[in-house]
Amino acid sequence: MAARSPEDVDRLFGEYVNAGNLDALVGLYEPGAALAFVPGAAPLVGTAAIREGLAGFLAAKPRLEMHVVKVIRAGDDLAVLYNDWRQIAPEPLAGKALEVVRRQADGTWRFVVDDPFARS
């Protein structure tokens, strides 16, 4: 399933994490996307680095809840998402993400920048 709106990107992220679907999860990112996976560390850039980081994350079998609280659109093809998320397993964790998503040529949406702890 592809993201058909900016909000779908976060909804699908949660679904794919909960299902342990690494390929679908990485497919939510543009080839040159950046993921600030670990606070204070350099972001993971490009889908190969993002895949490696997310594979380790999925190995812990996390369970996430996603809640988009605000969307700011810039025209028809760019949006900023404010997402309050919660990890309920394997250990409780929460964050307030800031994410930039872009509409692709096929009409789907993908992450350009994903910072899960930007507003935490």
Structural account:
- The chain has 120 residues and is α+β, with helices and mostly antiparallel strands.
- The chain has a single domain, classed as Nuclear Transport Factor 2, Chain: A.
- It has 3 helices and 6 strands.
- It has a 6-stranded mixed β-sheet with strand order 2-1-6-5-4-3, covered by helices on one side.
- A hairpin with a 3-residue loop joins strand 3 and strand 4.
- The chain is globular and about 40 Å long.
- The termini are far apart.
- The model has no long low-confidence stretch (mean pLDDT 97).
List the defining traits of the structure above.
single chain, 120 residues, alpha+beta, Nuclear Transport Factor 2, Chain: A, six-stranded mixed β-sheet, 3 helices
